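Model: You mentioned two targets. I'll fold them one after the other.
Researcher: Yes, keep them separate.
Model: Target one:
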Amino acid sequence: MVKAAYIDRVGPPEAIRYGELPDPKVGPTDVLVRVSAVAVDPVDTYIRSGKLPMRLPTPFIVGRDMVGQVERVGAAVSRHAPGDRVWCNNQGFDGRQGTFAELLAIDEKLLYPLPSGADEREVVAFVHSGLTARIGLERAQFAAGESIFVGGGAGNVGSAVLQFARARGAKTFATAGSPAGVDWCRQLGADGTANYKIDDVAREAALVAPDGFDVYWDTSGHNDFDQAVGLLATGGRIVVMAGMTARPPFPVGPFYVKNCSLFGFAITYASAEQYDRAAEEINRHVAAGKLHVRIDRVLRLSAAAEAHRLVESGTRLEGKVVLIP
């Protein structure tokens, strides 16, 4: 038996139970991993609550992200060996069990090697946001040397977008809602910043991209399309990936006469090829020590319900909530 955080049916955070479940079964292409750390993502709360309906096994182990060490492998496994350190993201989806357990059986195709010397907690705190940022930039056809406006640049996804865009030589502008958040964006190399609560965002943004931005990505979910279209260059693109219940007005005229495009994006439905490309780039940057992440707190896995309450409560978190078995 293994300890795990799981639900018997969708519901509030209190639906999460922590207790013993049978050891996972290891198939021919599966890898048995002993978990070192997991992280809580907003999408975890959508799945647990039923806001994002999907087929779930019963009981269902919650969670998507994991870092751990391989204990044994199935007979047909060729990519991993006992002792390897690995990470994953795309669990707890499409009928697969999640990651909030002491031991997991995961198809080898869904695991990626953890670079030597990498900090396990930092990596698990980064991978979901990093994959979202990397695949979202690909979805928006973001090219080297373009410019990008990042709303919520101090958040988990926003800071990852900033880092990947900077690595492509982009001109970057980021907003945050506090002096500490603005400072974090500057530390990540943003060419320009603004505190959206007190600064004139349009004026400050024009100092970085006077002719408008090639891509506008508000990672916070506010989705102010009047601002977005106003700040875009001709032919600019908007990325939308947050704000599940938002129903904002949309400036149809200014949008189409600027020849703009809008890309809706949910990482849950990214292809295996997109995941592989993103994971390769993440590992390259992790190995080079070029990726940076903030962790708000580290809790025990038994506190999974508390962690879910924190993430969906609107409490201001300075980074990810990480859990350890």
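Model: Target two:
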Amino acid sequence: MRILLAALMCLVLSLSECFAISGGPIFGGGNVTTTGIYAGVLYPRTRSNSIGLFSVPVPKTGLGSGTVFVFANQSAYNGTMQATANPDSGLFTGYIDSGFNFVDTVRTGADKDGNPTFTVITVRAVASGRIDGKVKAKESVLSRASARLTGSSLLEFNPDFFGTGGITYDVIGFKQSEL
């Protein structure tokens, strides 16, 4: 009986080694690679008719450059996002620069008869600000994303058509693929 039990234990121990995780278990964000292509959404913290979308690659060296779209203040801002991520701490930092051009008419004075004169100018409306986030390894076995991105962002608008003073967003994203 002891020999049968010993043989079964050898079989169980051999099989359990086959299913072991290489390098040990993953506890928290220490074993996450920060390079890759990230996509995410900017949700306003306060009740606001606003949302933002972005996609940006984060390379091993240098800054990644991607696209961003922000819908706020009844306007659509499109532009670029520069980002980097620290592989040791998992900190993700990005800068958003987006905007759109519009035409405005400005009163410039009066002619010799006293009639007002106007000049048509093109003005660029800008939405810009930082994203501060954290890249974390997936928490669920059922998750298909290799990493999650969470954080916050404050975007300021110039001109500020509705006097918002800027909008604070929660950032929720994920790594779409490796580079």
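Researcher: Noted. Anything on target two?
Model: The mean pLDDT is 85.
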